[in-house]
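Researcher: Here's a chain I'd like modeled. Treat it as a single chain, no partners, no ligands.
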Amino acid sequence: MFPHTPAALKDIARECFQLNAAASPLLPGACSPSDYLVHSFFEGRCNGTDPGLRPSGKVANCPTDCVVWANRGGGKTLMGAVATMLDLMFKPGIQVRILAGSLEQAARMHEHLRRFCQNPAVAMFRPTATARTLAMLNGSRAEILSASETSIRGSRVAKLRCDEVDLFKPHLWQAAQMTTRSTNIIGPWGNTVRGAVESLSTMHMPLGMMWSIVSGAAPAGSFPSEVDSGRTDEAGTPQAAEVAAAKRPSRVLFRWGMMDVLERCPPERDCGACSLWDDCHGKAKRAESDPDSGGHVSIDDAIAHKLRIPLVRWQSEALCLRPSRSDAVFPEFDERAHLFGDALHPVCFEPASGALGGVGGSGSARLYAGMDFGFRSPTTVLWASLSADGVLRVLDCYAEATRTLDKHIEAITERTARFTGAGIGLCHIAVDPAGHQRSAHSGVSSVVMLRQAGLVVRSRPAAIDDGLQRIRMMLEDRPHCDEGVVSTGPRLLIHRRCAPLIEAMHRFHYPADKPHETSPVKDGNDHAVDALRYLVMSLPRTGEAARGRSYL
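Model: Modeled as a single isolated chain. Structure tokens:
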């Protein structure tokens, strides 16, 4: 009965747990739920397409930690429960812990485990279940953890499965990373069950916890099938090989959406009249000869879901193509359209012409800056060029906390010199009007200190929404004309090295529980946007960029 191969594992999952999991995905780049089960059970030593395990003496070049990004109703919790039960049955003495965004969510996985215990194949292992634990006669044990640091830090287990990780607080997620340890259990995977943290979730929030985890993962198919345990790098140096290994992604990504777990479509259904055609393109009409080709989501349910919700939400929560942007202040922001340059290299002005080097644009460009004050929160400064065609290109971003203003001024002067070395000066730096307030200690305002350092300072009182609306207009992809130059595309571009601003453009959001609230949440993601807002509101009027005439 022991599953020595992926095929045998899938047979046991189907027979013991009545698991109706699609064997192959429908959409490009997606995985099937079975791929996750194979990875988890065999400790990353093989994938779902392997007929068997790799020969001894070689190990899979694949981490055990993994992340499952799937749609709502896509079977994430069920698959986590199946993976847990397979571990308990066939890995004697293993310790598994289940951690979820809420105790209620963790209880759902435990409900699946208790239901599995009614199966005769599972009953052979004499399972004993309580409200929060499940133990087997072979010494294996699973337990639900409460979402607290005390509970998490007290665990030392082989497997930690985190359900709905997008709801985790960052400090809990960090505490969970030190809870696993390898266990000596012999099986087809070798002599050791490697410690692993598995994350299962939809992706609710832009740049939320799940987004961060997925960004450090790589799709399962991107890892080499095997690597010789004594292999070095191409140059033959073990040290360089270790560096290369350290740069590899630390987690395997398994992603599937509603189309990938859709039931097999019967021949009599008319594809032309189906509202799922744009997503399915008839692929759900799988071969009748393949009994494992269909998933657990019915076509009628999928159609009903799509008709009930907006397309953007369908694409994020059902198809898992991108995170939800429903509460984002800048839902128009798209890295593919609004970023330029190389994140590892700065940009500069070409000394000969004064044109902005390496970033396009027509004619000469002028340099501007925007600044948001802070102390415990970061003081943020942006540098941007405004070219003759009216396109604003943010070139650099400075964000530092717990520094006095004189230190910030030194940094501003130094960074500005990188752009003005070709003889092109900074037109002005736009700041928060609150910078005119005098310090209680020195009696001098921040604006005065900036001017004493030789900077031209501008501050324009304006409603927050006016500045946000101006930024939205510049993000739009539409024709614009300046000084007789007709251009298309967005009028705001951000260099890839401006990580704090890029992150803020994604994260800046309205309160999700107050749909009519027009004021964004002040949770630390506003500082870079505020600096951009001050900068944008201080720019020259349309048609006057090349002449340097300002609003003020």
